[in-house]
Amino acid sequence: MYKELDPLLHSQLRLAIISILISSEKVEFTHIKEETKAAAGNISIQIKKLQEAGYISVEKTFKNNYPKTMLSITDKGVKAFESYVNDLKKYINLK
Amino acid sequence: MEKNSLTPEESFDIITKAISNFKINYKENSKSFLLWGWIMSLASFSHFIVIKILLSTEAYELMFLFSFGTWIVFVFSGFIIEYFTNRKRIKDKKVFSHLDRFINILWKVTGFSIPVVIFLSIKLEIPPPPVFLLIMGTATTITGMLIKFKPVTFGGIAFFLFSIVSTFVPNENTLLITGAAIICCYLIPGYFLKSAKE
């Protein structure tokens, strides 16, 4: 028996965002946009979903009068990512 | 980019690509290397000149005050410059990596250990450079290994050699060794880091 993969992480963009955040303490929104090459609106929607699940935290500040959004992964997000990767391993091993 | 029916292989591919494409630019560390390299080497040479002047004028009672004063002036200037340059750098920084945080803590702790080294040296009546260079060597080697940049790692190792060498020279000349060590082991690797490809 293998577990169902976390539907929140089992999405291309959300998984890419979490994978970037796992390697860092804090990452600016624009950097996520550059790395994923996704549309800002789409990223915002996915970030909101991840934030609502408590996987990431969002910090909004200002830089030269422009809004600056910094994202970081929470402990809950780290645990979710770890179990997602472990579940993935089981799927691949079963094949 | 959104796609909901991912296979486990595709998921692994996304994770691997996201992590491996995520290159952190460690060149920005060179700014601290250059700033503190110049500050500490100039402080060492200035301290040496101050001691020579005081010895020639036989003003021995001023030795302690001027020795401390020289370092305090340089180090304080360094902190002021760093405060303003860091403020701008942090504002513009897009990625704060775990390694950034670790290196930052490492150097803060190293910085706080320097006054302890000076206190111990006064108490034990030994010149500070050998222990100072040893601590600098430890922090520089760790930094070099963490950012995987050989000139910084070798610089750190060379600090250990300078630390040993400094025990074989007369007291005031240890300052020349300290200045030379900072240039060779800290400032020059800092320039290598600055000119390194991203």
Molecular structure report:
The complex is a heterodimer of chains A (95) and B (198). By secondary structure, chain A is α+β, with helices and mostly antiparallel strands. Chain A has four helices and three strands; from the N terminus they run H-E-H-H-E-E-H. With 198 residues, chain B is mainly alpha-helical. Chain B has one domain (27-195). In chain B, 78% of the residues lie in helices and 2% in strands. Chain B has seven helices and one strand. Classes of the chains: A alpha+beta (95), B mainly alpha (198). Chain A binds chain B through residues 5, 10-13, 15-16, 19-20, 22-28, 30-31, 35-38, 42, 46, 63-64, 84-85, 88, 91-92, and chain B through 1-4, 6, 8-12, 14-15, 17-19, 21-22, 24, 91-98, 100-101. Strand 1 of chain A pairs antiparallel with strand 1 of chain B, so a sheet runs across the interface.
Give a short overview.
By secondary structure, chain A is an alpha+beta fold. Chain A has 4 helices and 3 strands, in the order αβααββα. Chain A starts with 11 loop residues before the first helix and ends with a helix.
What is the approximate shape of chain B? elongated
The class by helix and strand makeup of chain B works out as: mainly alpha
Mean pLDDT of chain B: 87
The SS-based structural class of chain A is alpha+beta
Distance between the termini of chain A: 13 Å
Shape of chain A: elongated
Outline the biggest β-sheet of chain A: 3 strands, antiparallel
Compressed to H and E, one letter per element, the order of chain B equals HHHEHHHH
Widest β-sheet, arrangement of strands of chain A: 1-3-2
| Helical residues, percent of chain A | 40-55%
Number of strands of chain B: 1
Question: Can you tell me the residue ranges of chain A where pLDDT is under 50 for at least 5 consecutive residues?
Answer: none
Low-confidence stretches of chain B: none
Any idea what the radius of gyration of chain B is?
Answer: 21 Å
Helix content bin of chain B: over 70%
Summarize the biggest pleated sheet of chain B.
none
